[in-house]
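Narrative summary of target 7.
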Amino acid sequence: MLTNLSTSYTDTRAADLAWALGREPLPALATLDVRMDRANVQLRLLGASHQVLLEHDRGACSETVACIAGRSTPLPLGVAKRVGDWEYEFAARVELLAPGAFAGRAQELLALVSDHPHGLAGVFPGSPHAFTAMLVHRHQGQITWRTWHAYPQDGQLVTTRTRVGVRPAPPAGAAGEPSRVVGRGRARGVRSPSAV
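Modeled conformation, tokenized:
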């Protein structure tokens, strides 16, 4: 689904983006509800970027990547974390593209997402290439979503990929594994091992 958003975007450059888990729903400009087996996924376009809400009988997960004040972590290259019964993995990268390449990539992504039944994209006023796009799918028991945040004024395209799956039961007596955050600080265009 493609929508033209009637507000200016507040995350005006890639460096403004931050990542957070567990935030309450923020005001959305557009939403798309997707049912996947026993899971409900809501894709949410914000003036400040995106939020994904996942609800399942095994628990819930909320991811926010946006320009938000408060306790958010600068956009990391990668995160692996347990969220209730879920294994959560997140990766991000920033691409710097020349104007012609940026326009072509923007058109391809908007066509891909707007024609997909599980895709949501919003174009902001001022440029047909200023957009946020989201796409969710389910594969082998995992739910994966990808997002794209376009900043044509800087030629920057931020891509994120999230994978959420039910955590397998640990062997008897095994200790839990701590969360891992890879590349603290801003994503700088380096591809993480779990390729975005």
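DSSP finds one helix and 14 strands in the chain.
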